[in-house]
Amino acid sequence: MPANLNDFALVVGINDYPSFRSLTGAIRDATDFASWLKDQNTGGGLPDANCAVVLSTPDSGRPAHEQIDEALEGIFNAVAVEGGRRFYFYFSGHGIATDQTKNHLCLAKWSEKWRKNALDVQDYLNTVAATGKFEEIIFLLDCCRVRVLGAGGLVCNLALPRPNNAPDTRIFMANATEVFTAAFEAEVAGSAQSDNRGHFTQALIEGLQGAAAGPGGGVSAADLKNYLETNVPRIAAERKHAQTPEVTNGLLRATRFGSAQPNAIAGWPVTITFSAARAADILLEDSQTDEVRRGPTSTGPWELHLNAGLHLLTDLGSNEEKSFRVKAGMGVHHVQF
Q1: What's the whole-model pTM score?
Q2: How many angstroms separate the CA atoms of 57 and 109, rounded?
Q3: Residues 116/38, Cβ–Cβ less than 8 Å
Q4: CA 144 from centroid of its chain's CA atoms
Q5: CA angle 12, 16, 17 (to 5 degrees)
Q6: How far apart are alpha carbons 256 and 222 in whole angstroms?
Q7: What is the rounded CA–CA span in Å between residue 166 and residue 162?
Q8: Residue 49: how many other CB atoms lie within 10 Å
Q9: Per-residue pLDDT for 268 more than 90?
Q10: Domain 7-257 - what CATH class?
């Protein structure tokens, strides 16, 4: 049975901007985070029905404003019946800022002409909080906050009256980068690469899967904040980028995300990309034949930190193997399997 029946999420990933620069990794980042949310073992523990995932499709100009609001309406309808505890909003795509306090999330139709076709972050946050249905609201935004003159954001079309007995709402807000700066969230800019990933989301998932976990298991809000602030710049620097997140934590000290056990990041960065022809689970072992990771190719590319030495990948369907050696001090290792 799912652990958190009263937790809900809206996850948005937009690769496809028909009239602007399309991205290559935003959808993968969004689906990876949705997978963590629905992980019943050590993840967010949400039932599938509680996690709305809205993704772009090529040349459609979608999602549009109404698709986001309709997904949010579905959550509000469910909460009215079941009640809510925690609400997650995750976005990966292009983002802009119009001043120090106004962030906007670019919808698929955004362009230099359609520069107001974006979601007003503060208004959507206020709309969710005003329902009085959630004790905790988590906003995780893997996008730029570059300044665009004459731009703006669309407000949410939904509004629910706040009940008199509504609980206090506590908020955790994490932006991938500082205001008026870029985030390297799977940028394409004409590149044909298929494994571009958001530095923010990489750090986020690393932390939630155990790198930021405390001794008793699970990740506290304070530890997640610290992990993002420390490791987004680290990951960015490994790829010769500069990126500093801004994280505001208003949650209680006892708050925990998931139940992963501590798994400190150590070693050297390795990115493992899988052939599209592979369909079975993959096993990764170290030089002592200890299991490092196991999972389907759909979770790739794997971005890991491994100790120096020999490692072995095995396709558990075909038993095909590939060994590779991690050498200290050589930067990011790229392995194709």
Answers
A1: 0.77
A2: 11
A3: no
A4: 14
A5: 110
A6: 9
A7: 7
A8: 12
A9: no
A10: alpha beta
Q: In angstroms, rounded to a whole number, what is the distance separating the alpha carbons of residues 77 and 80?
A: 5
Give the Cβ contact number of residue 53 at 10 Å.
20
DSSP string, 201-246: HHHHHHIIIIIT--TTSSEEHHHHHHHHHHHHHHHHHHTT-----E
Joined together, the tokens standing for residue 4 give 């958190």
Q: 239 is written with which tokens? A: 């790829």
CA dist 278 and 209 (Å) reads 24
Q: What is the DSSP letter of 297?
A: G
142: number of Cβ within 10 Å: 33
Q: Is the pLDDT of residue 153 over 90?
A: yes
Hey, what are 212's tokens? 């930021």
Q: Is the peptide bond before 301 cis (omega within 30 degrees of 0)?
A: yes
Task: Tell me phi and psi for residue 207, to 5 degrees.
Answer: -60, -45
Query: CATH top-level class for 268-336?
Result: mainly beta
**170-175 and 118-120 beta bridge pairing:** unpaired
> Where in the chain are the domains?
7-257, 268-336
Separation CA 176–CA 94 (nearest Å): 11
User: How many Å is the maximal CA-CA distance in the chain?
Assistant: 62
Which residue type sits at 42? T
Average pLDDT over residues 219-238: 90
Query: Using one digit for the tens of pLDDT, what is the confidence trace for 168-195?
Result: 899 999 999 988 888 775 454 444 444 4
